[in-house]
Structures are given as structure tokens and as C-alpha cells.
Amino acid sequence: MTQRFNTEGVFWTRFPNTCQYSVVYPTGLLKGGDWYQIQAYRALNQALGRCIRHRYDWGAILLVDQRFYSKNSQQGLSKWVRNQVQNTSSHNTFMENLRNFVRRRMEIQLEEERVKREEANLNEEEEVMDDTDRASSSQESTGGTQSQNSTVMETVNFTMDPDNHVVVFTDGACPRNGKVGASAGYGVYFGENNPLNVAGKVTGRVTNNNAEIQGAIHALKQAKSANIDRVCIKSDSQFMIKCVQEWMPKWQSNGWRKADGKPVQNKEELQELLHQIGQMESVKWEFVPGHGNSHGNMKADEMARDAAGW
């Protein structure tokens, strides 16, 4: 008996004194056709992968081969492609599907680019605010009074806006913002000698932005404690106002991650701010220029500086 091995991985066995052959496939070895098919799919999937190389890439892959109509043939494709294969029966249907796909992806791409631009502007605004705080730290601050939270008496008067919202000014201060040894405070000002006025040191991350957020949180808590459920918060923080009005809904839907995939800073404080907003009937936000002619803003700033130990 003699044996030989051919290129397809098959042992051919010839028995003496006969013209008969027996084909034996050794255990663990592939048939030649199976091996070639695996190599073909490997090369195909490597080529398909070149369509998507980066996070924001997108594209359409055209498999112009009728064999891919078969589910068996599709099983050899990578999973990320396999589950998205769409068979079309006509050229017109194919072109319409392709146009719709490109249109949807362009809309998504434009939205992602818009969000990235907004977040880039946010970072620039934070840097400008930080620079302003550092420049202001060299100036002598005036003292302010710090009132503790207490029950509001019926005789207390509030400033109301045209939509019947109680007006409150909030501010944050952080000497040496972003540096070792920094301290931060917030100030909430409802009016002169108003028992709802409050100020305090910032907990958590010691930054100017966190101080602004915590000021708004305490303003809403103070209002709620006095059964006030319609509030107009006036702040010189464009960062905080844009967080509430523009960015937080997107961050929420994205698992509290920014467009670049990085986690949102001050997440816990922003979530608490959302919770407090949800306790109110109506909350309005109004930007006022810092260190300007607004008496309420200047008083909130004084209170925040005092609380921060400025």
C-alpha cells in the first residue's frame, strides 16, 4: 500500500495489486475548496474595512455579484457588514436607496460638525472667562453681606419680570482658577436684605464654571423653599446659560458625552441643576454683562467673592 498527499490536503491511498483508490480526509484538515474560500473572504473583508477607517467616516459598499443574494454567501462577510446588506432587484431602486443613504449621512455629518463647532466655542469662552477671573483676582474686592437661608416673610418684596417670574441674580467666583490652592464661592441675590439671599463655598471641582452652576442650583432651591415656582435667573455666565439652553439636551442623549466622545465635565452638578429646574413651573435665563451697571449682578458677585475668601 502506498500513500501520497496532494495540494488539496487529501490523502490518496493505493492498495497493492488493485487499481482502486480510497480518499481519506485527515481529521482537522480543511478541504481545498474550503481553504480557498476562507482566503477569498479574508481578502474581501480587508478591502471592505478600508471604507471605514476613522470614527466619523461613512460610506456605501457595492457588492456587484449576484452570489451575495444568497444568505450562505453573506455569512462569510464581517458582522458589521453582514447585518446591513440590502438586496435590490432593480437599478432604479438601488439608486434611490443610495441617494437616501447619502442624504441622511450628510445631514448627520452637518449636525455633528455644528456640535463640534459649538463645543470649540465653549472651550474658548471658558478660557476667556478664566483669563477674566485671573485678571480680576489682582483687584481689591469690596465686602458684601452673606445671608443664611431662612423662611421668607410675607412682607418681603421681590422684583418681578413682565412674565411674573421672580428675578434672582447668581454669580460664581474662583480666585486662582485652574491653579493649585484655588477656592471658589457662589452668590445668590434676590434683593436688598432679602432672607433668601445666600452664598457659600463650592463643593467638588473648584472652578469658576462649577461655581456658576452651583449658584444657579442654590437659587432654585431657595426659591422652592419659599414656594416660588416661577424664576428668572440673571447670570453673567454664557457658559451656564448655553449649557441649559443648548448643550445639555444633546449631552443627555449622548450618554453625557460630548461630540468628541469625551465625558462632560461637571456632570453631577449639571444633573442636579436639571433636577432643580424640573421642580419649578417655569425657569427663564437671562444674560447680563459681568462687572457692568447691574446692581443685582454686582451684589451677587460680591457675595461669591466673600464666600470664596477673595
List keywords for this structure.
310 residues, alpha/beta, Nucleotidyltransferase, domain 5, 3 domains, 5-stranded mixed β-sheet, 3-stranded antiparallel β-sheet, 8 strands, 43% helix, elongated
Task: Give the CA-CA distance, first to last residue.
Answer: 100 Å
The total of beta strands comes to 8
Kindly provide the name of the CATH class of the largest domain: Alpha Beta
How helix-rich are the residues, as a percent range?
40-55%
Low-confidence stretches: 1-11, 134-153
Estimated structural class: alpha/beta
Name the overall outline. elongated
Number of domains: 3
Overall average residue pLDDT = 80
Strand content: 5-15%
Number of helices: 8
Strand order within the widest beta sheet: 6-5-4-7-8
Within CATH, the superfamily of the largest domain carries the name: Ribonuclease H-like superfamily/Ribonuclease H
Biased composition (Low complexity): 136-150
GO biological process, one term: DNA replication, removal of RNA primer
Family: Belongs to the RNase H family.
Catalytic activity: Endonucleolytic cleavage to 5'-phosphomonoester
Give the SSE map.
Elements: E1 2-5, E2 11-14, E3 21-24, H1 32-49, H2 71-74, H3 79-82, H4 91-136, E4 166-173, E5 185-189, E6 198-201, H5 208-225, E7 230-235, H6 238-253, H7 267-278, E8 282-287, H8 295-308
Parallel strand pairs: 4-7, 7-8
Antiparallel strand pairs: 1-2, 2-3, 4-5, 5-6
